[in-house]
Specification:
The strands form 2 sheets. Strands 1-2-5-4-3-6 form a 6-stranded antiparallel beta barrel. The protein contains 3 helices and 12 strands; from the N terminus they run ββαβββαβαββββββ. It is elongated. It has 2 domains: about 5-90, Beta Barrel (Elongation Factor Tu (Ef-tu), domain 3); about 95-160, Roll (SH3 type barrels). The chain is mainly β and about 170 residues long.
Length: about 170
């Protein structure tokens, strides 16, 4: 089975017909939560087909074809929902975190810096944390003037660090 990504958490039930309340944790809720789409529970490989979906008070109310009533829906409370990767999810210069972590970072002037170990999202842009033998830890803002190219096939990120970013 291909890799699955967390897209939501079942936080409760709604009504007596088996709808569940979903707290969305995906950047693409309109694409993920569509009638006919398939989601998976965190600890099961059984596919769950979305029979209906609607938004109510900031939550997604989803009725799965496999869930017949409130009693059955209750069993899924606090479960994480997962989905497969969808090719049309990402735009240009957008990546899954899991694709970026582990890539080798190379600066045009300084050479190889190290590998991306984590990604932080403190505000306006992401910051890639690079573990480096030479510089210990390098924080790289993910902005076009710094991150010039991301080559997933080669496993490399080409950057041009501004003056003063590394001591």
């Amino acid at each position: 089975m291909e890799k699955l990504y967390n897209v939501g958490k079942i936080v409760g039930t709604h009504g007596i017909k088996g709808e569940v309340k979903i707290m969305s944790i995906t950047d693409f809720p309109e694409q993920r939560y569509q009638k006919g789409n398939t989601l998976f529970l965190e600890d099961e490989t059984q596919p769950m087909e979305i029979q209906s979906v609607r938004v109510h008070k900031g939550m997604y109310l989803i009725k799965f074809a496999e869930v017949k009533d409130l009693t059955e829906a209750e069993k899924y409370r606090n479960k994480i929902l997962k989905a497969t990767r969808q090719a049309d999810d990402l735009g240009e210069r957008e990546f899954y975190y899991s694709d970026i972590i582990g890539l080798t970072v190379v600066d045009n002037n300084l050479g190889e810096l190290g590998k991306v170990s984590e990604i932080m999202s403190p505000g306006a842009n992401d910051v890639w944390v690079v573990k480096s033998k030479k510089y210990k830890e390098v924080l790289i803002p993910y902005i076009p003037s710094v991150v010039l190219n991301v080559d997933l096939e080669d496993g490399k990120v080409i950057v041009e660090l501004p003056e003063g970013l590394i001591n």
